[in-house]
Amino acid sequence: MPSIPHLSVSLLLLLVTACANGFSEEKKLLHSEILKDEAVARLFELGKVSDSEEFLERTFQSAASVRAGSLIRRWMEDAGLQTWVDQMGNVHGRHEGLNPREKALLMGSHLDTVIDAGVFDGALGIITALSALKVLKIKGMLGNLKRPVEVIAFSDEEGVRFQSTFLGSAAIAGVLPVSTLQVHDKSGVTVQGSLRMNSIDISEENLLQLKYDPESVYGYVEVHIEQGPVLENVGLPLGLVKGIAGQTRLKVTVKGTQGHAGTVPMKMRRDPMAGAAELIVLLESLCNQPESFLSYDGQCAASAAQSLAGSLVCTVGEISTWPSASNVIPGQVTFTVDIRAMDDLGREAIIYEFSNRIHQICDKRSVLCFVERKHDADAVACDAELSSKLRSAVYAAVGPLSDDELLDMPVLMSGAGHDAMAMSHLTKVAMLFVRCRSGISHSPAEHVLNDDVWAAGMALLEFLESLV
Ligand SMILES: [Zn+2]
């Protein structure tokens, strides 16, 4: 006999309770038909809208992304929303509710994908928001919303085509530099040119006008697949996000003396490959156990140490050597370092410690080392009040998610960037993560259980009902 998924039991309990509270059988079915069956069908329908026949690919302003925008716009209208496409290709659906002058709640995620993508990344946040609003419309409650609600399907989060993430959400948040319009893709088409090919006339002036007035916005809420294994490990469908990690990218170059693999004695070598290997292992140790390496006096508070212990991740993802031949001691080795943590001061302390130790190791090995800082982004903390409303909505929607009283809803750090990161420059943000199979994303193997799609939709519905 197949085991009953944990959430199904929770939902069953909820629905039994709901019926006991006077909810009709009809309403129960309505919710599951829209929040589960239709939402899942739409995820797979959108997942078929691709520029490639073999795999899912939708990049900024590609033919498929324009078709996807039209499909989403239809679903927005089906949910009772007024729709439009802005000059960065973002698709908007809005209902003014009772008070059009009130600050608006913004919700959404991105409609673009990576190459050979899964169907849930981005799409889940758009479709669950629209499903929840559609249920409100059917219940006749859309006009009772105390503030306007707007769903935005952002045109670019992955940055595949122009190597420049958040084109859509950064424009709305007012943090997209106007020079971005002249960035070009591999075939020489600029961001501005790609929009013009789709009859969208964007200029520097109207890019600046896309920025929302912060006074007109209440907050931004995004549902997204977790893209990690934590929720699956604890056996729960939903988790709150406490923030999005800050990130630093470094490029480390180690220079030694190039030579013949057969003739240079070991003791006379200045080998940058062995040096780079030692540095990479040092980075791993440092990030595994920062508390054994860092002295926190003056550099980093005790709270940062605690925060680092739970969120710090470091990766060497790319390495290149010159001249890269099996019978040559390399002259130079270059590798990248990606460091992410919730605590910005803690991340700085790690970089400081790593850089110091790099120079000690390189001196000892008589090789030259250079560290270049290529990219920095500060961490974004989710808003406590908005998150607490989201948490209450989850509990109200699916009940206590565990029988174990000690096991509260998980609060996770996002190691990946999201549109919420750009939107945090405009307004307070909150995020809900949804369990995905084996933590896999950016792959056709990406998978979310139908019941978990339902749970996310129920949570958003409950959250919206709290605005009625
Ligand atoms: Zn995403």
UniProtKB/TrEMBL annotation:
Reaction catalysis annotation: allantoate + H2O + 2 H(+) = (S)-2-ureidoglycine + NH4(+) + CO2
Gene3D superfamilies, per the entry: 3.30.70.360, Zn peptidases (3.40.630.10)
EC number per UniProt: 3.5.3.9
CDD domains: M20_bAS
Name of the protein: allantoate deiminase
RNA-binding listed as a keyword: no
Keyword Transport attributed: no
Signal peptide (residue range): 1-22
Cofactor(s) needed: Mn(2+)
Similarity comment: Belongs to the peptidase M20A family.
InterPro entries documented for this protein: Amidase_Cbmase, ArgE/DapE_CS, Bact_exopeptidase_dim_dom, Peptidase_M20, Peptidase_M20_dimer
